[in-house]
Amino acid sequence: MSSCGNPSTDQDALMPRRLRFNKGKDCIKCKANPGKIVIRHAVYCKECFIPLVMLKFRRSLEPSVNASAGTSKRPKLKASGSLVLGFSGGLGSSILLDMVHKTYFVNESSANGEARGGTNHPRSASVWTSCAVCYVEVCSAFPETRDRTNEIIKALAPYPKFDFIPLRLEYAFDDSWWRSITTTDQDRSQLTIELGKDGLYTEALRHGPSCDLSPVDALRTYLASLPTQTAISSAIRILVRLLLLYTARSHRASHLLLGTSLTTLSISLISCISQGGGHSIREEFQEEWYYGIPATTENADAIRVVRPLRDVTMKECSMFAWWNSIHVVGRDGQIRATAGIPGLTKDFIVGLEKDYPSTVSTIARTCAKLEPKNASPGLCILCQRPIQEGLDDWKTRISIRSYSDAKLGPDLVYLPTPVPPNSSDVTMSDQCPSISKQLCYSCRTTLTSRGSRAAKPTQPRVIHSTQQPLSAPLPMWVSASCAQLRTEDRQLMVLGNGEVWVGKRQDDATQRNEIAEFLLDT
Amino acid sequence: MAPASCALCQKAKAILKRPKTGQQICKECFFFVFETEVHHTITNAKLFKPGDKVAIGASGGKDSTVLAYVMKTLNERYNYGLDLYLLSIDEGITGYRDDSLETVKRNQQQYSLPLKILTYEELYGWTMDAIVSEIGKKNNCTFCGVFRRQALDRGASSLNVDHIVTGHNADDIAETVLMNVMRGDIARLGRCTLICTQGEDSIKRSKPFMYAYEKEIVMYAYFKKLDYFSTECIYSPDAYRGHARTFLKDLEVARPSAIIDIIHSGEAFGVREDVKVTQKPQQTCKRCGYMSSNDLCKACTLLEGLERGMANSVTTDRARKKLDALGPAPDNLRTIPQFRPAHLPVSVELPKTDL
User: So where does ATP get bound (chain B) (predicted)?
Assistant: First the structure.
């Protein structure tokens, strides 16, 4: 049957699509030129469209440039550090690179010799001391894909003022890279973990270094140990984000800019919600990253992650790139990085955008009105985003996973055939500490939640000396976070119920201060 | 390969894999964990107190049939002390609701619960068949949803009950979270993950199945051999919601925990305080007295459109303007009877076993 539903017409006949614009054929802004592009029912000419996109870019970026808002209505833009730009070679980051270059780093003179845009234009003063373009090569995660670093270097040739920092995904497991970007002399033994189990037990916390894999093998083992394709996509996304953030920190950057468009932002938001990341929904928009410190801390050294294209749709980005002859390298080699829930979400949102063009904007505007219900006690050691309290309670409340749960005691009398409490959990948790309490809900789900069909591991896992198919290595920052817990005055304690407690030794002076008001002068 | 033993009792042979936890468990353990989880949902949220009169929204479908069975079981097992009723709404959909109501009537006999049936026709003067013949299949779910919500409240009010429980399951909640994000309904997004909602002067509504997967409800009904009506509504579902539902099912295939993960997200975020103050306060409808965000409640607005031959006035701006241009509603317009939240005694149909 044809798409119009008439059985008597040609099978392939398509019903004429209703025109999505009804405001006339001239540009809605200048009302003089014929329209060239339809953006959500409104028609724009090329001359009006390009400044409009530039305006959206600056409107999203500039309010977050200065460290504090100040009292001036039009404060002079001055960032507290340098700029790092995350570049993937995709559409968004390509046009972002061009916009940043033209707006803040090129001060071309006009025909009469004066600075273009006047003395107050951001081009006339250096907003950032320098700009570095950071590219993360992910080919090591997918053996069938090729290294595109040289293509990226060529694409960056028109921007000689920008430094280029090539990174590789496996650096997340590379001790030498970690040493080069961190200054503290921490315990750098790599942490390994038994993935796919609810408790997320770690052997390395107790036994020390246990992983002698090369960074590439460690990366592949880690990814192969993840239980779903969604988890792999999510893990790669986290690794790329943290590699960029740590690099930005090592370059004393105040801002990390990402080329996330409105469409990709909406995809990220829905994907984040679908993976249980509702508590950190704000961070998907704009994030202030403090290394290892909760976001509530007043810290001038925070890195602001800004997405200046968050009001520009993918369609607008495409037209902007086309009309400005911006070369886009493309990212077709990363198909597997968007499998699972992120890939499904992308297909869904892009498809929905065709019939309901306002959807992406509605999603972003709706999520901008949300905030986490509860304060965070700290940051997740894997994704470095806020964690929630009471996750175990919530999980226990909504599902019964073991009859050994003490809260279930009175209910067990209604079980037709009484069973003794399951002791396996107690034994496991007694032997190995768990990092689950230091993970956010989303990361915990990423590491433990299985697909509808049990995935078979494609890569050999790290085999321990006990020959148990145990562990996958974890990124360096996870090991570092756990190492921080193992410093001199702290001690990890594992309780019988699987909880890991951090014991902090108090010195005499602290103890005395706490009881000072009850002590008599002698 | 030898069959796996139950992950919970370690004794019996596992016969199913729980979508919610991924565990392979036996039938008896499944019944136990399903019922106990619902019990925990009820007790953790302190939904009821002894002596409460509770109406179970019964459509004859799997969710409400299992809900009625589980509520009756838990009420007896844990001595909740509840007076349970079945409350059904007859939307007037020939070949669908009339058949499903037969299932509800059988459930009434099987579970020995009093039943009250309220029809759209007696309440609004319109059946869904008549509405669809007036407006077509597009957007008819808007009418049905709005009318049903109010009909349930009115039915509960006439039964003099304190509480309505509905069979909304985890899939429904997850779908609603996504829908509300996608259509920008910030007010509903803030409350759709609440297990119990109550407006001013309205009856409490709860969702004891909000953490129960739809698949597990079907499994429970299947293994318990419960009598339910499984046909989908004959009027095409809302296209936009259909997209969301398909998307959710795809997510569930990719990772079954996605449903509970979305609910967790919905519970973790809330509407910003500065946004809340801009939201409209709740008031009562000037025409029927039901809770409303505007002068007229949604049901009265829809009914006025139907009565004046402008049914699409709530779905398109152009039709709304056209209706406004016609002037105020005539005095002889058919309206919904005044809503009376006060508890008034009514007669209900009792099961034959009690007669």
Answer: 57-59, 63, 89, 167, 172
Residue A365: its chain B contacts at CB < 8 A? Answer: 184
Residue A282 has pLDDT above 80, yes or no: yes
B28·A417 Cβ contact <8 A: yes
State yes or no: pLDDT of B332 exceeds 90.
no
Look up the pTM and report it.
Answer: 0.84
Q: Are B314 and B305 in contact (CB under 8 A)?
A: yes
d(C-alpha B261, C-alpha A275), whole Å: 6
* CATH number, domain B31-230+239-272: 3.40.50.620
Q: Nearest residue of B to residue A345 by CA position?
A: B247
User: Is any Cβ of chain A less than 8 angstroms from the Cβ of B4?
Assistant: no
pLDDT cut 90: percent of chain A above it? 34
User: Given an 8 Å threshold on Cβ–Cβ distance, is B211 in contact with A275?
Assistant: no
Q: Are the beta carbons of A441 and B183 separated by less than 8 Å?
A: no
The 10 Å CB-count burial string (b at 16+, else e) for B221-252 is beebebebbeeebebeebebbebbbebbebbb
pLDDT of residue A488: 42
Residue contact B264–A414, C-beta within 8 A? no
Superfamily of domain A77-109+121-190+214-368: HUPs (3.40.50.620)
Tokens of A401: 């996973």
What is the pLDDT at residue A369?
93
Q: Which of A1-10, A369-378, B20-29, B344-353 has the lowest mean pLDDT?
A: B344-353
- Which value does ipTM take for this structure? 0.86
Give B197-202 contacts, CB < 8 A, sequence gap 24+. B199/B282, B199/B291, B200/B282, B200/B284, B200/B291, B201/B284, B201/B291, B201/B341, B202/B153, B202/B291, B202/B341
Looking at residues A284-310, what average pLDDT do you find? 75
Inter-chain touch A397–B267, beta carbons under 8 Å: no
Interface test with A, best of B269, B274, B275 (most A CBs within 10 A): B269
Q: Where are the domains of chain A?
A: 20-64, 77-109+121-190+214-368
CA distance A152 to A166: 9
Lowest mean pLDDT among A38-42, A77-81, B236-240: B236-240
Confidence band of A424 (pLDDT split at 50, 70, 90): very low
